[in-house]
Amino acid sequence: METNDNILIVENLKKYYYGGGIGKNRVAVKAVDDVSFKIKRGTTMGLVGESGCGKTTVGRTILRLHDVTGGKVTFKGKDLAKLSKKALRKLRPELQMIFQDPYSSLSPRMPVGEIIGEAVREHKIVPPDQYRQHIMKVMRSCGLQPQYFSRYPHEFSGGQRQRICIARSVALNPDFIICDEPVSALDVSIQAQILNLMQDLQDEFGYTYLFISHDLSVVEHISDTIAVMYLGSIVEIGDKVSVFKNPSHPYTKALLSAVPVADPDHRMNRIVLEGDIPSPANPPSGCKFRTRCPYAFDRCSVEVPKLQNIEDCHEVACHLFDDDAAQYEANKKGGISA
Amino acid sequence: MAVRLGRRRKQLKGVDDHEYLTLREERAIAKSNAKIMKEFERKKRRENVDPSEYLTEMRDPNNVVEFDNLHTYFFTDVGTTRAVNGVSFDVPTGKTIGIVGESGCGKSVTSLSLMQLVQAPQGQIVEGSIRYKASDGKVYDIPKVPMNEMLHIRGSEIAMIFQEPMTSLNPVFRIGRQLDEVVLLHIPGSTDESAKKRSIEMLKTVGIADSERVYNSYPHQLSGGMRQRVMIAMALICDPRLIIADEPTTALDVTIQAQILDLLRSIKDRINGSIMLITHDLGVIAEMADHVVVMYAGRIIEEGTVREIFHSPKHPYTIGLMLSKPRVDQEAKRLYSIPGQVPNPINMPDYCYFYNRCNRAMPVCRGEYPDLIPFSDTHRAACLLYDEEALAKQAALGTSSQATNAPEPAVVGQAEADLIVTDVDNTDEGPADVVATEVSDTVDRDEVE
Q: What is the pTM of this model?
């Protein structure tokens, strides 16, 4: 029964890129390393992290826009990672994506109607005689005037273009939409319009979103669950409320405290992290965050922390929460003395 | 082509504020623009100008910069874009001024005008003055300063930190050489060794630990945060009295942003200079600025101290902007969104530019463009809602204060719909019938920005 509830289950997803070196010396950039999560039908999961942490790669690998190096992606009971191209193509209408940059993700030589309708025709979503009405309906529900049908993308502003991108994915009646930074290229007032539109569409059609963004305030607004990524791994995952009210991983804490709040009297104890993100081609041993972590201790450099429950629907990958931390210390001391 | 554009024009006649231009019209505009731009450029390039022409007096000796009714226009082939349209504000010594607004509102052009770095020959300061008090006590009227004189002010007196550090650093020279160049140009009597010493010292100041290595690296070898630090070091190397930071953290991650903001704050105290911080991020403004200037479509619509702006915003646009940004520390079921978008900068209306998007617009708003109305010594906003006279007029008209076009805040895209009054069913007839409204808005706005 539970599999029906979760529309998408990602298990130990891995995506390595190989660059430089031959044979044994081949260097693997572990863009995504052992990522697992589940998304419930009709909910939104937010994926946050800094640039280069692999959040976009997760989105693209789920859709098989990049091939999977390892792991399982189960969508409605089918493993996307193992599907043949033909079978995947059949499934495509149900999995859609909204890209970050509305300026480069629309073909400048296609009119809006064609941009939205191309895939509808290709996948035979509606009978040919209803094609036009269907596109009009979708455009209207995305806040686009139907007379834009034969206009070209350059005639639109950023916000309108993002609406076209949304309409393009919505037109296929998908179940699951991956939104890769859909509002970061837009102005604040336009951002709000797009976020509201996405919520309205979710309320109306029950879409499931995977919302990828670096903007914590936006993610907090739209998501039900949140996963925080750092250097290709999830460091904290859980309910929106518990993650934001009780951030537990040192990285999440720093990330949350770094967001500037639009209130001059608001003073937060800011945790300013030292240094930059290490290169994913040569990540630190053990916990990847330990080089910037203010609480790092020696276990962090030896052992990779695993996600563990700290409360209901809230998991953290950090040795600070280990039950056996004390025992580990004792063992180590014993080992040295022996 | 000309024939086709001509036909389109005919069909679009009578449509509110936007129309396509025929090629002939476009050529005529280009021709007259060329004349205007030539005249401006000639003035700028004069040599041996008498200093009395560009030296003036400050209105208030405590200010570093005074913008006075600044107008910067772009003469494009499709018409004149009023990127900055009558902007006046002061930058006091030792304070941080935050300029906030959406893309295309003219905030960057305002700062570029101060540096005389507006994209010439299209962009020209056509009116108004920018008074700058130099370290030697002279007061320059920047728009009148000839080009060769400007070289002494740029870099050494006023420094600028740009948004995208990767494109602002030269990729083919080492960091060290680019830093040394600034020293050698602006500090008289400096040698290669003294320049290197100063550069390395400056890199240390901005928090780069292994400054020797960075000094010998190329920009691509550094991370985004490091590059921005190098940019800041470059700006500070001549001890400027005013730093213009144009979106200094927009391209950076939040944790790196926190580092850079900390650095900027500590540096301001160190050099006792002023900062002009330009950003669209209200959070950054709230954290950094003492005074805030809110711009919309080339005009200041509200200004005041940071507390006045954030605790009692007056202009509907400022209020909308605050409400539309989700906040980490507050829960909101639904965001408020300002409907519609910025009007076409080429065809600005005579009345309040925000009228079409305002949820409190009144018929009287279609009159003149409102003046800035003072609320306190520092707080001013340009909105007729606070103008007694206008309200009285409004009452006399006997209409309700809620205009018919006022869109409900919750209805997204409704205003966009309201902007166009055409028959929905005529879409089958092809592109010629399509009515242009906010057409090509972005293209123009990008140019301005």
A: 0.81
